[in-house]
Recover the amino acids of this structure.
């Protein structure tokens, strides 16, 4: 019998958090996404979201935050959608890979989810002027530097008319989408207080992600997100149009 993924509801907080959104040709991205999921696209581009965040107080509901775990998490997710059998659209993120800095999270994450966890050394240093990050991984090393002193600008070649339009369009929908079969998905709904969501677009001085090599990826924008509490609900199996 197949083991059901995402079987429990988990709560925690994200502090701090950075979201890098890359565009890549839809033709290139299509091979990364399993059926029956479809790419969210704009003018021939798909979008890949990389989150770098410190998770705190991660624990099964209803346990208190005091017993929760803290760890660094880096995840690579494609913006994706599928059509529910009732005709409505399900839109969210499909995880391609996750890196974390705790063995327990790697082992339990790969047992309970399909977020594809790998253990890596993750270091993020913040100052008033900059944020510098390094991911020490044998197969997916990465580094980045955000310059808080620079004003962000619309990326060259962007399919959006303004930076504000890009930021609004690329704020991801709070669902994790993974494939159960050719016509079913495992959907994890992410609950957050939308009124508490605070983010701003920041300037990226440099970034290099080995995982993106050979995917023709170009940075679209980067959000810096203020601390916020999240609840990841247990996965629900839903039927979709294949």
């Amino acid at each position: 019998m197949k083991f059901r993924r995402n079987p429990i509801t988990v709560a925690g907080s994200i502090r701090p958090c950075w979201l890098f959104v890359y565009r890549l040709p839809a033709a290139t991205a299509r091979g990364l996404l399993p059926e029956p999921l479809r790419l969210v696209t704009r003018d021939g581009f798909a979008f890949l979201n990389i989150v770098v965040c410190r998770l705190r107080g991660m624990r099964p509901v209803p346990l208190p935050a005091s017993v929760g775990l803290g760890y660094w998490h880096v995840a690579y997710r494609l913006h994706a959608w599928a059509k529910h059998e009732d005709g409505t659209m399900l839109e969210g993120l499909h995880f391609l890979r996750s890196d974390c800095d705790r063995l327990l999270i790697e082992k339990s994450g790969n047992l309970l989810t399909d977020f594809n966890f790998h253990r890596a050394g993750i270091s993020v240093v913040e100052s008033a002027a900059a944020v510098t990050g390094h991911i020490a991984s044998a197969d997916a090393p990465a580094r980045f530097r955000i310059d808080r002193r620079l004003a962000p600008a619309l990326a060259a070649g962007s399919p959006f008319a303004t930076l504000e339009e890009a930021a609004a369009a690329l704020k991801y929908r709070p669902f994790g989408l993974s494939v159960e079969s050719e016509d079913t998905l495992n959907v994890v709904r992410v609950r957050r207080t939308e009124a508490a969501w605070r983010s701003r677009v920041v300037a990226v001085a440099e970034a290099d992600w080995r995982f993106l090599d050979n995917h023709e990826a170009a940075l679209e924008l980067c959000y810096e997100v203020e601390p916020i509490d999240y609840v990841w609900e247990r996965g629900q199996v839903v039927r979709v149009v294949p």
